[in-house]
Amino acid sequence: MENGPDIKRFFEPRSVAVIGASNVEGKIGYKLMENITSGGYKGELYPINPRGGEIFGIKAYQQITDIEGSVDMAIIAIPASFVLEEVRRCGEKGVSFLTIITSGFSEVGESELERKIVETAKSYRMRILGPNIFGIYSSKVDLNATFGPKGVKKGKVAIITQSGALGIAMIGKTATEGIGLSTIVSLGNKSDMDENDLLEYLANDNSTKVILAYIEGITNGETLLGSLKKISRIKPVVVIKSGRSKRGALAAASHTGSLAGSDEVFDSVMKQCGVFRAESLDEGFNWIKFLADTPLPKSNSCVIVTNGGGIGVLATDACEKYNIELMDEPEYLKETFHSAIPSFGSTKNPIDITGQSSAEVYKKTLIAALESNRISSVMALYCQTADFKKEPYKEMITLIHNEYMSRGKTIAFSLVGGREVEECVNELKENGLPAFKGVYEMVSCFGVLHRFSENKARREMEIAESEIDVERIENILDNALSEGRAFLLSQEAKEMLDAADIPTPKSFVARSIEEAVNGAEDMGYPIVMKIVSRDILHKSDAGGVALDLENKEEVMDAYQLIIRNAKNYDPHAKIDGIEVAEMIPQGLETIIGARRDRSFGPILMFGLGGIYVEVMKDVSFRALPMDREEVYSLLKDVRSYPLLLGVRGEESKDIEELIEVMIKVGTLIRKVKRITDIEINPLFVFGRGKGVKVVDIRIMIAMEKEVSE
Ligand code: COA
Question: Which residues of the chain have pLDDT under 50?
């Protein structure tokens, strides 16, 4: 909201009123007071209750307007039917933020009441968190205004959650996992404030090092993308999204539509923003803990130390998946490790001391790795051996970790084995150490850490856009709409592509043999000819298509043959002429799609095209706008990207031109709001320097004059 209160006062309120504060144990108004007082809130606290008196030993006011001092935040926990009235009073009092815990609004169909509350708050320039939430914890002012567990551990992780119940569970889980919080905020119905408002503050909040967001549905997607792109370069953002629904609501209109299931789009877009999407709560928690506590690797030189060949291989495979480079300098590795490991071990990365080695050898090898100036990160793998004893191992790992982490080394431990080993891992974790039961879990943490290093190195670039003739395009749309069509005819679509400077095959409609011949001579051979008639949809079946015509004589013969065939096929068909078009040589078939996603607004799709696109599903998505690097990354995302580079001696393809066309299609959907879907399939991509060509195109438009994004 423009000119709204400073978001700082939401996370750092100087004074808080609890409307619905209660002395009755078991009530939410009681729990809130208990958490706020026991949490040591640093500001003024005002309980509000019609009975007055004292609550938790603090003077209670009958109404918020009775308070003399100012109130930055009012927390509301009274039945839904009384909330609107209290919101009005808060407005009169000049409150800045409302945290509405109460349920019973839009989530149960009471949208009108919620709308009135938002409207009232807006009229007083108040912002609303919720309703239907568990509250907010903010470490800056030691405010635990939630009805979750008390005794939240202070730390560096900020959690934003749409689900209240899960949020409360997360507070408990952070405690057992030894994760400290800078804040946790429940978003509930998002009637007013959403992720964007909170990210704005968290981006610059020096007590927050990592952000975890649990998202169920996206509102205001385009703004969210902008915030996420910015913030993910400053601090890591981990997202857990529930629901892997297969299809977006506007699915069937095109290939792009049916391929753009909401989850696929969400996945691609999060990647585009530099956000790390976790598959599960456990994975998300592993990541945030690691990201919060582990120094970023200073270089790409990672070494695996193991006492088991098998888990070493597992870790190597996982490193490949997460793009983690393993140090590959045999001479240096030999020099570094030969005195530490036994003669039957291996100094090739993974450094394998083998299962016969003692704890002492394991320790010596780890120290050799960590003492090296050139090795910046170490994955320590351990397979249970006969001499395993929990306490000495725990002690050794703790000592090594504390010593080298403080020296800026990136290190984690994965211990695989029976109950005693698992207990060891659990205890290390509780003490805040990066210890894992699974190799894969550990490597995935290194993966996000590396990706965050890459994010930090990414520069902000200019948005890639092209010049298009919007007025000419709007006229084409007006014409189609005036005929009641929500799609463009092929000539119209071609004209639109011309207006956007996207290369289509040269063509014209000839109405006589002379016109056909003259035009063909000008255009150059070979050419194709096709009947143009609204009454003949299946041109080939009607004998209305002639391919690969090489000269004047062939054009004359084909013209007469096509007209004759068409008349035989349907004597009443109205024939508008014959389309004469350049014959396009075979190129690599790709697909470019653009559409309006319900969550993120305009999105662009690229993939391997042609008739198998729906089977292969080798496509990827990005949200618009994009810079040139992002467009390039969209190309690289598809599995068949190597085909563009040229395989088995084939020449590489015209990637530069392909990127230009993608930028132009992106510009079209962004600038012309009435276009809902563009699908170019196939787009032929030729060899380097030889360009690309649209072979077929579909354009859908919205029937309404104005489309809001
Ligand atoms: N101003 C101030 N206090 C008021 C009030 C008002 N206008 N109207 C009522 N109160 C007081 C009540 O007198 C009571 O205090 P008391 O215990 O001293 O009598 C207190 O506020 C609470 O009201 P009560 O009627 O007892 O409601 P409740 O505690 O049973 O339920 C909610 C209130 C908000 C907890 C309930 O309506 C609700 O929404 N529960 C679900 C919350 C939830 O799950 N949120 C989402 C989590 S993810």
Answer: 1, 246-254, 706-709
State which of 18, 19, 25, 28 you would mutate to test the pocket of ligand 1, scoring each by most atoms of that ligand within 8 A of its C-beta.
Answer: 28
Chain-centroid distance of CA 127 in Å reads 27
User: What pLDDT does 243 receive?
Assistant: 60
445 lines ligand 1 (CB under 6 A): no
Kindly give the distance from the C-alpha atom of residue 170 to the centroid of ligand 1, in angstroms, as a whole number.
Answer: 24
Chain position carrying tokens 């991509």: 685
Which class for 703: exposed (0-12), middle (13-18), buried (19 or more C-beta within 10 A)? exposed
Quote the tokens at residue 230.
């910015």
162 lines ligand 1 (CB under 6 A): no
Domains of the chain: 8-242 (3.40.50.720), 297-457 (3.40.50.261), 506-583 (3.30.1490.20), 588-706 (3.30.470.20)
Angle at alpha carbon of residue 11, lines to 32 and 433, rounded to 5°? 85
What are the backbone angles phi and psi of residue 158, rounded to the nearest 5°? -105, 135
Q: What is the 80 CA–ligand 1 centroid distance (Å)? A: 8
Residue 259: its H or E element: helix 255-259
Q: How far is the CA of 20 from the centre of ligand 1 (A)?
A: 5
Q: What is the pLDDT of residue 256?
A: 52
Distance CA 393, CA 531 (A): 81
pLDDT at position 250 is: 37
Burial level of 36, CB count in 10 A (0-12/13-18/19+)?
buried
* Residue of minimum CA distance from atom 17 in ligand 1: 22
